[in-house]
Amino acid sequence: MSTITLALRSALFAVGFWVSLLIYLPILPVVQFLPMHQRFLILRGWNWMAVHWLRLTCGVRWTVEGTVPEGGGVIIANHQSTWETLFLPLVVRGPVFVLKRELLRVPVFGWGLALARPIAIDRAAGRDALKQILSQGRERIAEGRWVVIFPEGTRTAPGRIEKFKPGGAMLATQNGARVVPIAHNAGCAWPRKGFIKRPMTITFRIGPVIETEGRGASEVNAEVEAWVRAQLATMPCPDQGA
Q: CATH for 3-232, among 3.40.1130, 2.40.128, 1.10.10, 1.25.40?
């Protein structure tokens, strides 16, 4: 497929993406008054539209291996793309994303994020940001929700993975919460800082539950990182030649 064709299909996706956000705009003031489970169902509808519009316009499909159990805990996943942030609410009921505060200022998109009660941190705050994750994360886990953490701290290119920061493992071990690791190669289809989306089937692999009761954060963090690295080694980007 030529670069021009890929660019045109990606432009069509972008137009539909932002139009769908504008369609949701008049709904958001009403959604804020609904119970949380109803909010999630409505907001999740937009996520569903976004990833299926991407499938129709750009040929980006996916396969899911494994399941996230009911209840709450901590999900630790690698971060390559915007795609996984759109897709996770479709496989996890009411996820709580740990994200940078600036995202809440994005018109419409950020307003919808705020309605899901994420943990919005100032990444430059250092230890204060970690305290916020641990404090608010404890509350969300007690509500039976899954807290989603991208321990690399930023999106990375396929084939590369940054050392995992221990915040997610600390949150889990301090609360005796379960950890579910996730690995995927979404960056091959939707690269970070990239406009062009490439047709392929993303592998979204959900790992086994890791119990943390009586374990240290460094031990759990190392286990999760080792699992994610091992899975990514089996997920090379497919041939994307024109």
A: 3.40.1130
Q: Which one, of 95, 101, 113, lies nearest residue 149 by Cα? A: 95
CA distances from 212 to 62, 152, 227, 228 (A): 30, 20, 15, 17
Q: Which residues of the chain have pLDDT under 50?
A: 241-242
Looking at residue 240, what is its pLDDT? 54
pLDDT tens, position by position, 87-123: 999 999 889 999 988 888 888 888 888 888 999 988 7
Q: What are phi and psi of 173, to 5 degrees?
A: -70, -35
